[in-house]
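Subject: for your reference before the review

Hello V.,

The reviewers asked for a structural picture of the protein, and I figured it would be easier to keep everything in one thread rather than splitting it across files. Below is the amino acid sequence we used in the manuscript, unchanged from the supplementary table.
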Amino acid sequence: MRRVSFKRHRFPPTVIRYAVWLYFRFTLSFRDVEELLAQRGIEVSYETIRCWTIKFGHQFAATLNRRRMPPSPRWHLDEMVCSIAGKRWFLWRAVDDEGVVLDMIMQKERDTAAALRLLTRLLRTQPVTPELITTDGLRSYAAALNEMGLLSLHRPGRLRDNNRVENSHLPIRRRERKQRGFKSRKSAQRFLATHAAIYNTFNTQPHLSKRWHMRQMRARALVSWKAATLAA
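And here is what came back from the structure prediction:
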């Protein structure tokens, strides 16, 4: 496994890893992370923390994604409206039936071409072939799946049939409010991709697990995080 280089950084890797983990794991701003570190006697500016999240976040996320178990072949697709620099964009997302985020892409349109772009990315990047694809009533999904020859897998359900992906939008909504909207498409895509990888790793779903099982899942998540962020 390729390790992360922390060379030419004044702070030790443990501090950098902890700051990046706090920012992506919880609904915190850079100033919130700065204050939490200060409470522990670590004086670092919020701007430095921002640079850490940009430089190291995608590296950690890429390693976590490589370590991830294959997802379920039952997929749920949906799109949500986001504000980027005051303009309306659509975030197209896919999760499996366990709530694992498979992929997402920020797009300007809400049409067949946009749906086709998401499905093409999914088929190219996921290690499993879908058995069932559940969507809402948007006709763009059916048109795109028909063009790809996958219409037989389509399940255009009612709202409650797609609750899995609808509920997975909530963490993003919280982050969007905390950040007062995204500033650019590129930064939004970068942040959400990193957030998804860390969310998938630490999403123990405590409301569905017994306490002992949740502790085991949390311990495994921490082991994966430490392995993915080892210093070179």
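For the response letter, the relevant points are probably these. The mean pLDDT is 91. The domain at 74-183 is CATH 3.30.420.10 (Nucleotidyltransferase; domain 5).

Happy to draft the paragraph if you're swamped.

O.
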